[in-house]
C-alpha cells in the first residue's frame, strides 16, 4: 500500500508561482508526490469541489479569496468539510490564528519555512508520513 506520504493527495494554493514551487519542493522532499496546485482560492475551490483532496496547504494573502475565506467555503460544504487545512502565512499573529481556529483550521506554517516545519505541520494533521 505504501507510506502515507505516497498516498496523500495535497492541493497547494498560492498566488505566487515561486511560493507554490517552494511548498511543492518541500512536499517532494518529504516524499509527497500527489500534488495539485491552484493559483488562487477561487480556482482551488473549483478544483477541490470537482476532485476532493486529503489536505490543502494554502497561502493566507491572495487576491479575491484569501486563505481563511477558502477554508470557510470548504468547511461550509459537506463534501469538503473534513479536508485537512494548513495555512501558510508570513505573519502568524494571534488574531489570525484565532480566526483560523474558529474556522477549524488544522495547522499553520510561518514563512519562511523549512522542510522539517512543513513535515511536522502535516504530520500533526494526518499522522506519521513514513
TrEMBL record:
The organism's superkingdom is given as: Bacteria
In this chain the Response regulatory domain maps to 9-126
> Is Mitochondrion there in the keyword field?
no
User: InterPro entries per the record?
Assistant: Bact_response_regulator, CheY-like_superfamily, Sig_transdc_resp-reg_receiver
Q: Which GO terms describe its biological process?
A: phosphorelay signal transduction system
Q: What is this protein called?
A: Response regulator
Listed A to Z, the keywords are: Phosphoprotein, Transcription, Transcription regulation
Q: Which residues carry this modification: 4-aspartylphosphate?
A: 59
Gene3D superfamilies per the UniProt record, alphabetical? 3.40.50.2300
State which residue ranges cross the membrane.
none
Amino acid at each position: 500500500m505504501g507510506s502515507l506520504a505516497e498516498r496523500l493527495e495535497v492541493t497547494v494554493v498560492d498566488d505566487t508561482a515561486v511560493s507554490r514551487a517552494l511548498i511543492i519542493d518541500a512536499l517532494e522532499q518529504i516524499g509527497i508526490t500527489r500534488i495539485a496546485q491552484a493559483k488562487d482560492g477561487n480556482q482551488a475551490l473549483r478544483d477541490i469541489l470537482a476532485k476532493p483532496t486529503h489536505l490543502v496547504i494554502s497561502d493566507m494573502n491572495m487576491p479575491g479569496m484569501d486563505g481563511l475565506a477558502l477554508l470557510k467555503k470548504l468547511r461550509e460544504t459537506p463534501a469538503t468539510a473534513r479536508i485537512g487545512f494548513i495555512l501558510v502565512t508570513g505573519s502568524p499573529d494571534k488574531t489570525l490564528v484565532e480566526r483560523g481556529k474558529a474556522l477549524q483550521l488544522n495547522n499553520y506554517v510561518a514563512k519562511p519555512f523549512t522542510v522539517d516545519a512543513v513535515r511536522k505541520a502535516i504530520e500533526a494533521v494526518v499522522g506519521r508520513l513514513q
